[in-house]
Specification:
Length: 225
């Protein structure tokens, strides 16, 4: 029986790649990559010559069955996403679940993921938190906001740059103007920035200065006061 490795990759700074991740990627039979072009640059940087195969949200439903057969035949596979830890708002869950159902060993290496540093440096309570990832674009969006308005734990979102101002305006609408918000962008990269304040203050900041890059938004939970 083979084995599936879930291998985190840097979210920006290549120095965040672990020695163990490099070792695993060199030793497995092949690598599943969300985007082989992006991952090819990473593998070249670390002199990793292992063959790659495309595995992304548009084809993972079709490829899981064949991958399970290859794992059952004894092959070792590493799964990587474009950045961060596989299955965290990226492909990985379907294959992991299929491995568990078929008693195939799965090992997830510790490593980079965007929401942890954003949560920790937000200054908001991090003893209990909810990871929401990306909000629905249309259907179900209002329903999610109405439910989350009552959430008392810190809430974490992934937000694309062109939707940030709209999302912050929705925070003001559903959570209240004074709800604490922290926006981290370009984590681990040259232009890393974290903007903290009330929902209104942070909204005004990004209305005046549109954001670029990868963004994680952390929102304080509803106060019990």
């Amino acid at each position: 029986m083979g084995k599936l490795y879930l291998v985190p990759t840097p979210i920006g700074n290549l120095e965040d790649m672990t020695f163990r991740a490099i070792k695993v990627l060199k030793e497995v039979d092949y690598i599943l990559a969300e985007d082989t072009r992006n991952s090819g640059k990473l593998l070249k940087h670390f002199d990793i010559g292992t063959p790659m195969q495309s595995h992304h949200m548009h084809n993972e439903h079709k490829t899981v069955e064949n991958l399970i057969k290859r794992l059952q035949a004894g092959e070792t596979i590493a799964l990587i996403s474009d950045a961060g830890t596989p299955a965290i708002s990226d492909p990985g869950f379907l294959l992991t679940r299929a491995c568990v159902e078929n008693n195939i060993e799965v090992e997830c290496l510790p490593g980079a993921t965007a929401f942890v540093p954003a949560l920790v440096n937000s200054g908001l309570p991090n003893d209990k938190f909810v990871f929401e990832g990306f909000l629905p674009d249309k259907k179900g969006r209002q329903t999610r906001f109405l439910a989350l308005a009552e959430e008392t734990r810190t809430i974490i979102f992934y937000v694309s740059p062109h939707k940030l101002v709209k999302t912050l305006a929705e925070f003001v609408q559903y959570f209240g103007a004074e709800r604490p918000v922290s926006v981290s962008r370009e984590l681990s990269k040259l232009h890393e920035e974290t903007v903290r304040g009330t929902a209104t203050e942070v909204l005004k900041h990004f209305e005046a200065k549109p954001a670029k890059g990868e963004i994680v938004v952390v929102v304080g939970g509803k106060s019990g006061k």
